[in-house]
Amino acid sequence: MDGKDQCLGIVRKWSAHAANRSGERLQVRMNDTSLASSNPPLAPCRASDQPVEMHNIRQHAVLVSSHGLGWGPLNIQRREEPRAGREFLPAGTTDHSIFVRLTDYYVRRESEGETKEGLYLAGQVSIHPARVPIRWEWTGRLNFLLLTLDPAFLDSVARETFGEKAAPVHLWHEDGKHDPLINNVASAVLREVLAPDAGTPVFMLSLANVLSVHLIRNYAENMPAAPEPIAGPTRAVSAAVRFIRERYAQNISLTDIANAADSSPFHLTRIFKKTMGMSPHQYLVEVRVHSARALLSTGGDRPSLAEVAAAVGFADQSHLTRQFKRILGTTPKKVRV
Fold it and tell me: Does this chain's domain 3-219 share its CATH topology with 233-335?
């Protein structure tokens, strides 16, 4: 059996595994570029029926890494791919992988019978579960942070926090989502790598727990049942906060926020300020500023200030700088690592 046949055999084996998980038959197209191409890929097919360690793939792109420091289940790498390329992992990866984009770029992803492609923006997040066959293809230079999380640790957090039925955790693929919490966790982890001290291992474990609970709540197929909604004004405020955190990078108005909270703009503003100590608009601006700070703390000169402003929903760089200084007391340029 030659290398190509071995790879295709692995694809069939893991396609069946993926179909069992999703409850649908995965269609493996053998005559196009989705999983097996007549054109040699830029990266060779990894002919193995075992998942690979993501941090060991494409080492030429790694600029900063926490691997080897012994900090536990959560690790980070900062990567720059210099040119277009492809990567096919027939058995997936050992860890869950979370990408935080630092610049805009075009990517195509194929996994579990699904194809997603498009131009993704700086600040957007993608999540790819462990042990699932996956193929990526990109058309130009990439600049991103890669968080990896040990599935066994995620399962242990699920059991301890949500009960035995919450594990094992099955994450779904997520492409191009704005998630300020993940952005801030990635920024915090990177800062620890660049300036560690005696408290770093404990802090890293805390971040791993925070990230795990967030993933279980928001990206797990077997997500624990949500509690009964809180009645009264707090329910509307919670809905508004959720809407803002999910849509902060978009051009949203007070009316949009109020509609999402099933309230009027006047009533929502009043109860929001009473509960949160600020108006919905002020909260929106703060979410944007703190998301911008997370992107700016990733090191180097990318993404640019203009790219960060667009990524978090500000009209332009000057608007970002003005609000940044008002809320944080410093300028965006001064927070770069």
Answer: no
pLDDT digits (tens, 9 = 90+) for 38-71: 333 444 555 557 899 998 999 999 999 999 888 8
* Cβ atoms 98, 49 nearer than 8 A: no
Residue 250 C-alpha from the chain's centroid = 18
pTM summary value: 0.72
Q: CA dihedral defined by 256, 261, 266, 271, rounded to 10 degrees?
A: -140
pLDDT digits (tens, 9 = 90+) for 288-329: 998 888 888 776 566 788 888 888 899 888 999 999 999 888
Please give the CATH topology (third level) of the domain spanning 3-219. Jelly Rolls (2.60.120)
Strand, helix or coil for residue 249: coil
Give the Cα separation of 290 and 303 in Å (integer): 15
- The single-letter DSSP state of residue 41 is P
**Amino acid (one-letter) located at 73:** P
**Rounded Cα distance, 248 and 263, in Å:** 19
Mean pLDDT of successive 10-residue segments in the chain (337 residues)?
45 42 34 35 56 92 90 93 93 95 91 90 92 94 94 94 89 90 91 89 93 93 62 79 88 93 92 90 91 77 81 90 90 79
Q: Are 158 and 167 in contact (CB under 8 A)?
A: yes
Q: Which two tokens stand for residue 254?
A: 């007070």
Q: In CATH, which superfamily holds the domain spanning 233-335? A: Homeodomain-like (1.10.10.60)
Q: Which of 122, 121, 149 lies closest to 54, judged by CA?
A: 149
- Where are the chain's structural domains? 3-219, 233-335
